[in-house]
Amino acid sequence: MTTPTGETAAATIGVLALQGDVREHRAALEAAGAAVREVRRTQELAEVDGLVIPGGESTTIHKLAAAFGLLEPLRERVRAGMPAYGSCAGMIMLADKILDPRSGQETIGGIDMIVRRNAFGRQNESFEAPVEVAGVAGGPVEGVFIRAPWVESTGAGVEVLAVHDGHPVAVRQGRLLATAFHPELTGDHRVHRLFAEMVRAPGR
After folding, report:
1. Which residues are known catalytic residues?
2. I want to staple 38 with a disulfide (CB 3.0 to 4.6 A). Which of 4, 17, 92, 105 is the partner?
3. d(C-alpha 126, C-alpha 149), whole Å
């Protein structure tokens, strides 16, 4: 992305603003140097270079995306190579398959993985733990796990970036990134900086 003067333009990263911790992701992305806009409509989706799918309730995000006419445009953009990052519920939304979906629950897909919802326990079993994430320099990030999923299995094209308690909790496939935890809640912007770099970089 370049300006008419030949300078590199800041990436515009959208945050899917249907439900979940939108404000926190927006602040983390801005701290990572990205221009940010909230996405609720297909026209707004068309105007961003990458997209964050926040934590929240994956079933609610699916229902609202369908109601707003965004579900198929989201799938089309991901298939076309748009970078996307999902945290917690966003990881579920980027999975090709959910092991234990709610009735009628669908995903955007894109990452060749199977995820298990609420795998680390319910709300009262939420916890924090340091997580070493490949590609993120400077030591472990603080992983905030809130009704978090984990990855049951991955396809050959998926790179596992982090594991906790024997289960993958951060993965990447091409220009798609997902974490089971919430880096947007910690004040540590390194994961968002990694994603912003993925958006700015040529297709991988």
Report:
1. 88, 182, 184
2. 17
3. 11
